[in-house]
Amino acid sequence: MASPRTAARTERVLITGGAGFIGAHLAAELAARGCAVVPVDDLRVAPLQPPPAGLLVKSVLDLARPDLDGITAVYHLASHKSVPESFERPLDYLDNVDSGRHLLRLCEQAGTPRVLVGSTCEVYGNSLALPNTEAAPLAPRSPYASSKVALEMIARNHQQRRGSRVTVVRLFNVYGPGERADALVPALCLRAAQGRGLPVEGTGRQCRDFSYVADTVHKLAGLLHAPPVSTVNLGSGRSRSVLEVAALLREIRPGLELEFRPGRRDEIDEFRADTTVQDGLLGLPPAVTGMREGVRRTYDWWAARLVDVPAARTPLLVKELT
Ligand SMILES: NC(=O)c1ccc[n+]([C@@H]2O[C@H](COP(=O)([O-])OP(=O)(O)OC[C@H]3O[C@@H](n4cnc5c(N)ncnc54)[C@H](O)[C@@H]3O)[C@@H](O)[C@H]2O)c1
Questions:
Q1: Which residues contact 20 (CB under 8 A, 6 or more apart)?
Q2: Ligand 1, closest atom to CA 24?
Q3: What is the residue with the minimal CA distance to atom 32 of ligand 1?
Q4: Which candidate, 79, 117, 124, 167, places its Cα nearest to that of 272?
């Protein structure tokens, strides 16, 4: 029987959204494990971290059957992924559905042995029962969440036809270096690094299940050789409020004010992953990055990108000067 290292070397893994936040970290993790990685991304979102080596600059819809030749596994992470943006431009989010349908059809034609489809906890909506279990009814509250439900339905159809090869992976909130500041943790880290007030939408009591990106990509990589299941939550199993996250930043930069703003439309009160399936597949993680440590690392990453400019009231992002 092949050892895990030998097995990894024979893997050729295509990652859509490979220049994105999670995709680039996953590409590095899989390469470190000896996999040949083929990242694909059309760069519609400007990356904040260097794109992974060998990036194929292509839209998912432009992938063709030969792009799947020799591919042993696909992680489908390419997506429009902003809840507020999806209310403003809902039709753009149909691309999540079209791209998924196209890619899964190619995988079926190519007989790709393993396909992991990136979904989101947003599909659960405002669940009355917590933690969120994979079997819970889906109740999307935004065009983004609806596009992921549709993607999951397409994946389900492929599962029925192809058995266990396709797995839906419901990611809960992932944070860390390289994520754009339109998500909660990087937004707070950037503001804190600039010495500005910390924006809090609504009461700040809404809770999310946060995971540091290194922990998430470790789990994603682990799924490559885990027994296939139809759906798995990837999360920490613990939720924290926005106010708790802001408090961690006020430990790093004491004295920063909280700036309360109107709540979001259709805001979800809490997401918290039931991790029974995840833990059964992957075992308990040897070490998880604590939230205090993960926020610190993310803050440091943002602080390193800032520069003091005499004419500006707050430090500016390096890229704003170029
Ligand atoms: N970051 C999170 O907290 C989180 C939580 C739940 C689910 N997810 C899911 O994880 C996946 C990755 O998220 P992320 O945070 O890395 O997002 P990201 O926006 O950083 O990365 C997505 C990448 O996909 C690319 N892309 C989008 N549509 C494309 C297409 N049709 N063809 C080619 N490239 C395309 C973008 O250019 C971008 O680089 C997404 O499917 C997202 O829905 C993320």
A1: 41, 45, 47, 77, 78
A2: 16
A3: 59
A4: 124
Terminal-to-terminal C-alpha distance of the chain: 54
Residue 59 sits at φ, ψ, to 5 deg, of -75, 150
Q: Can you give the pLDDT at residue 1?
A: 39
Distance 168 CA to ligand 1 centre (A): 15
Q: Report the atom number in ligand 1 closest to the C-alpha of 43.
A: 37
pLDDT for res 310: 66
Average pLDDT, the chain: 93
Question: 75 an active-site residue?
Answer: no
pLDDT at 3 over 50: no
Q: Are 162 and 137 in contact (CB under 8 A)?
A: no
Considering the domain delimited by 4-174+210-239+271-288, tell me its CATH architecture.
Answer: 3-Layer(aba) Sandwich (3.40)
pLDDT at position 9 is: 58
**Each residue's pLDDT tens digit, 187-240:** 999 999 999 999 999 999 999 999 999 999 999 999 999 999 999 999 999 999
Residue nearest to atom 39 of ligand 1 (CA): 20
99 CA closest ligand 1 atom index: 31
Residue 92 Cβ inside 6 Å of ligand 1? The answer reads no
**Which protein residue's CA is at the shortest distance from atom 19 of ligand 1?**
20
**56: exposed, middle or buried (C-beta count within 10 Å: 0-12, 13-18, 19+)?**
middle
Residue 276 CB neighbours (<10 A): 14
